[in-house]
């Protein structure tokens, strides 16, 4: 009997070691913003999205330093014990892997009393570096830098996203995406002039009314013209299916599946419509994507 309990203790000990090794840290360093955040929104939000895993600064399980969000002008703000590697789905009891994380941080802008953007407001989009990563090591640390003093201020045209009924049936509550604008202007600083190109991660969240929120198309106004013509940036949006757990989400263009669409082209094609909205579709997918599988599986086959 003593030997049995001793063996059980040894098994539990090694199991706890394995569990402890499957966690990592993310160290956030937040720099300046061109827009001074209002007191109510003085802390900056951040979200990490992995396979079947979402972590925000509101989750005290991982975020203990500043529960309300990241603090400006502050380095070394740490998310602790983030899961990675092999996990088990609580519903199906089937294994999956958190192989990759994406990082989303919302733009900074002035808000009204209801928290919405003020009339004719400008947005400080900012850059997150890196905005995706894979943990490497037994107890790894990932450094992340957020800089909101590097891109030109932009205005935003919102485009509503309507989910297909399949979202409700499959209980899909959020959709991660990447917006990439090849001509997004950088501030002209000493080391570079007229730099262009930027991208950022975002998350669409489904509400009880089965709506998914909005995608946004940045633009600026040409002040040299009398009517201040809106100049929309050349941006495309891509659904991040590589971390979607047993689901595939897509647009439909001419009846065909498409995972990336050009937002500028879509807006210019539909700008005279009474209501502009992009529709998203969802299908169940038995096969897990690369971001939900063992990243070492190919090496193990050799």
Can you give keywords for this protein?
302 residues; 13% helix; four-stranded mixed sheet; mainly beta
Summarize this structure briefly.
This protein has 302 residues and is mainly beta. Helix content is 13%, strand content 41%.
Overview of this structure, please?
The structure is a single chain. The chain has a six-stranded mixed β-sheet with strand order 15-14-11-20-17-18. The protein is globular, with a radius of gyration of 22 Å. It is mainly beta and about 300 residues long. The longest helix has 20 residues.
Order of strands, widest sheet: 15-14-11-20-17-18
What structural class do helix, strand and pairing data support? mainly beta
> What's the assembly state of these chains?
single chain
Q: How far from one another are the termini? A: 43 Å
Please describe the biggest sheet, giving its number of strands, its sense, and whether it closes into a barrel: 6 strands, mixed
Total strands: 20
Helical run tally: 4
> Which spans of ≥5 residues are poorly predicted at pLDDT below 50?
2-21
Give the helix proportion (percent range): 10-25%
| Secondary-structure element order, N to C | HEEEEEEEEEEEHEEEEEEEEHEH
Outline type: globular
- Cα Rg: 22 Å
Strand content is 35-45%
**What is the residue-averaged pLDDT?**
86
Which SSEs are present, and which pair or pack?
Layout: H1 2-21, E1 23-33, E2 47-50, E3 53-56, E4 74-83, E5 85-88, E6 95-98, E7 101-104, E8 127-129, E9 132-133, E10 141-148, E11 155-163, H2 166-170, E12 174-185, E13 196-205, E14 214-222, E15 229-232, E16 235-239, E17 247-253, E18 256-258, E19 260-262, H3 263-270, E20 277-284, H4 297-301
Parallel strand pairs: 1-10, 11-20
Antiparallel strand pairs: 1-4, 2-3, 2-7, 5-6, 7-9, 8-10, 11-14, 12-13, 12-16, 14-15, 16-19, 17-18, 17-20
């Amino acid at each position: 009997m003593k030997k049995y309990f001793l063996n059980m203790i040894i098994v539990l000990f090694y199991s706890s070691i394995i569990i402890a090794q499957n966690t990592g840290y993310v160290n956030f360093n937040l720099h300046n913003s061109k827009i001074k955040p209002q007191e109510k929104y003085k802390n900056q939000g951040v979200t990490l999205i992995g396979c079947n895993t979402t972590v925000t600064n509101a989750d005290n399980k991982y975020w203990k330093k500043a529960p309300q969000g990241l603090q400006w002008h502050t380095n070394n703000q740490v998310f602790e014990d983030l899961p990675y590697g092999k996990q088990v789905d609580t519903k199906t009891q089937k294994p999956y892997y958190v192989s990759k994380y994406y990082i989303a941080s919302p733009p900074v802008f002035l808000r009204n009393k209801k928290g919405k953007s003020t009339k004719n407001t400008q947005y400080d989009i900012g850059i997150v570096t890196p905005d995706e990563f894979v943990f490497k090591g037994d107890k790894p640390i990932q450094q992340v830098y957020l800089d909101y003093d590097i891109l030109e201020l932009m205005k935003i045209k919102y485009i509503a996203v309507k989910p297909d009924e399949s979202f409700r049936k499959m209980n899909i509550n959020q959709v991660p995406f990447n917006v990439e604008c090849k001509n997004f202007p950088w501030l002209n600083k000493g080391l570079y002039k007229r730099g262009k190109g930027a991208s950022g991660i975002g998350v669409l969240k489904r509400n009880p009314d089965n709506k998914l929120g909005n995608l946004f198309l940045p633009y600026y106004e040409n002040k040299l013209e009398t009517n201040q013509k809106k100049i929309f940036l050349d941006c495309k949006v891509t659904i991040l299916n590589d971390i979607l757990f047993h689901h595939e989400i897509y647009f439909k263009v001419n009846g065909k599946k498409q995972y990336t669409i050009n937002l500028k082209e879509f807006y210019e094609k539909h700008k005279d419509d009474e209501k502009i909205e992009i529709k998203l579709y969802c299908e169940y997918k038995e096969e897990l994507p690369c971001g939900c599988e063992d990243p070492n599986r190919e090496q193990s086959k050799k």
